[in-house]
Amino acid sequence: GYSEYTVASDISFHIERGEHVAIVGNNGQGKTTLLKTIAGALTPLAGSYKFGVHIRIGYYAQHVPDMLNPKDQVGDHLVHMAGPEVKDQDVFQMAGNFLFSDEDLKKPISVLSGGEKARLCLAGLLLQKNDVLLLDEPTNHLDFETVEALAEALSETNITILFVSHNRTFVNNIATSIIEVGGGKVRRSLHDYENYIYHLKERLHIAMPELAEEEKTPNEKKERRIEIREELKQEKKNLHDAEVRMMELEKEKQELFVWFEQNPNSFSRIKKEQVDHITYELEGVEKEWLLIQEKVEGMEGELGRLV
């Protein structure tokens, strides 16, 4: 956390070599703060942590591309990052994987766009042959082809990875386990992302009140049925509204994706921010829909018992 604000406390977990751990949680709960602390960019308020011996650590955050030397050429930067033990052929292959052509390798970094600088940093990070990678939103500013290439490269590596990403497909393709940050706590889940979501739904289940032991009178049952039907009517309307909103958001997101696909050489910060905003809102609406659906099922179950 920070001197004026503790994000989470009583944190304890162990990560095995080769695990790919996604740090998940709602916005503002402390995912990036936790990753920064592990990376040494923030000093922990209390306690300690340690890596294994002789561990090489690579760290990627949103500010990293801004720290590149604008006078360096793209190819020279990759060779420098790779070090002497990496063959030139491996450098060229990595450059190609991140969509840098032979001509691009001769360009000075100063002429690169924000997305190209992010790609360059990630390519260099993978060429370093680190034992641990700490990645904060690595897919931001990347086009879809690069995100796919990055996901494939990371999913196949035996490097230990801790990462934060709002791209659920990216998380699902890479994560072998989960760290959940929220409510001032940090929880460890050994499930992959798909199974984590399943168990999250179980935790979010809203238990409806059970019938009292004594039998209700016919009048009490009738009044309760009327009450439930009214509530059910409203909740089903809320469910429908949430479904409509999800469809609208998905349509907006798809239209933006089409633009990116049709303009692979263009970068629009405004459109990228729109995608991020829609993604955040969509996650919230999906969570709301899940809670309403659980509530509706509980009400329908109680209504059936009152017949």
Question: Any overview of this molecule?
Answer:
- The protein has 307 residues and is α/β, with parallel strands linked by helices.
- The protein folds into two domains: 20-200, Rossmann fold; 211-305, no CATH class.
- It contains nine helices and six strands; from the N terminus they run βαβαααβαβαββααα.
- It has helices at residues 31-39, 74-82, 88-97, 114-127, 144-156, 168-174, 193-203, 218-262, 269-305, and strands at 20-24, 57-60, 132-136, 160-164, 177-182, 185-189.
- The chain has a six-stranded mixed β-sheet, sandwiched between helices.
- The longest helix is centred in the last third of the chain and has 45 residues, at 218-262.
- It is elongated and about 85 Å long.
- Mean pLDDT is 83; it is low at 206-213.
Task: Give a short summary of the structure.
By secondary structure, the protein is of the alpha/beta class. The protein contains 9 helices and 6 strands, in the order E-H-E-H-H-H-E-H-E-H-E-E-H-H-H.
